[in-house]
Write a structure and sequence with these properties.
6 strands; alpha+beta; four-stranded antiparallel β-sheet
């Protein structure tokens, strides 16, 4: 059995445990009036960013009093109560699942969200996204008005992404590491998918860069990209999976996949822009609690695999 077969067999046994949401206060984000039509949709929408979350969940209906005279009854001093839906979108959530969850949360047809997602210009996507929303629907907690359209909801997520992109200096940072912004977002999405613990993200980003820099003799070989291309979920791709002709099959194809495989958060974006220093080419989650260790040789890698199996027997 070669090393890649062993890697897939080992990872297939690993169980992923989602991390709980990080603590923190809900913070309102007030976006300035954008120039593009898509961003104007977001500004006009009754969608508010509250805080970054780690799961997608409808947290319930909340009654919030509108300012007097803003809604019906304007000028009469009446105060109407508007019902708003609070939803939280997790880091790394794929667009296909995000759209389904938004449809379920708002009661609006899935087809409307899918149609809106294809209109990148109206959503205010940056040019480097090449019209694809995957990777740019920023994970956060949002308050959504029942009156908001799918376009307005998705545009609000893009608006939030653009704010984070500015905060992280995405465009200039990409130049500094010799990558395009789209490549950085693709790397960030892989880092997000492969990292049980955000503290390991810079090291996992370094593994990605080290593998990319060793082409053509080394391919990226990330199971997360293979599974994305097949619209599957799990920890490890099967032997049949890695034979697929998908453009996301990084076992067969050199370099990065054509775009992001999910919607990464700020920690993953920062890791992709600032990978840790090191020569690692492999990483193994050796402990069921999410401890990940790194190796720069096959001998070290096999030791980590042995450690994983030992912890699994005694855990």
């Amino acid at each position: 059995m070669n090393i890649e077969d062993l890697l897939r067999e080992t990872l297939s046994d690993m169980a992923y445990e989602e991390q709980p949401p990080p603590p923190g206060r809900f913070l309102h984000v007030n976006a300035s009036r954008p120039r593009r039509r898509g961003l104007a949709l977001a500004a006009a929408a009754a969608v508010t960013v509250l805080a970054v979350g780690s799961t997608f969940a409808v947290q319930g209906l909340s009654s919030r009093a509108a300012a007097p005279g803003v809604l019906a009854g304007q000028g009469s001093g009446e105060t109407r109560v508007e019902t708003r839906i609070t939803v939280t979108v997790n880091e790394g959530l794929r667009l296909s699942r995000l759209l389904k969850n938004l449809s379920a949360a708002t009661g609006k047809p899935l087809e409307e969200f899918e149609r809106a997602a294809k209109n990148g210009g109206a959503l205010g996507l940056p040019a480097y996204a090449k019209g694809r929303l995957e990777g740019f629907a920023y994970p956060a907690t949002y308050e959504v008005s029942p009156m908001s359209s799918p376009e307005e909801i998705l545009a609000a997520m893009v608006t939030r992404f653009r704010s984070v992109a500015e905060d992280t200096d995405l465009v200039e940072g990409a130049k500094r590491v010799g990558r395009t912004p789209l490549e950085i977002m693709t790397i960030a999405s892989i880092v997000q998918a492969e990292s049980p613990d955000k503290r390991d993200m810079p090291k996992i980003a370094r593994v990605v860069y080290n593998r990319l820099n060793r082409t053509p003799e080394m391919r990226l070989q990330m199971d997360s990209t293979v599974l994305y291309g097949l619209n599957k979920y799990g920890v490890a791709a099967s032997h049949e999976d890695v034979k697929s002709r998908s453009p996301y099959n990084t076992y067969l194809r050199r370099g990065l996949p054509p775009g992001p495989i999910g919607n990464p958060g700020a920690d993953a974006i920062k890791a992709a822009l600032n990978p840790a220093a090191g020569d690692w080419l492999w990483f193994v989650t050796t402990d069921p609690k999410g401890v990940t260790k790194f190796a720069d040789s096959e001998a070290e890698y096999f030791k980590l695999v042995e450690e994983y199996h030992k912890n699994r027997r005694t855990g």
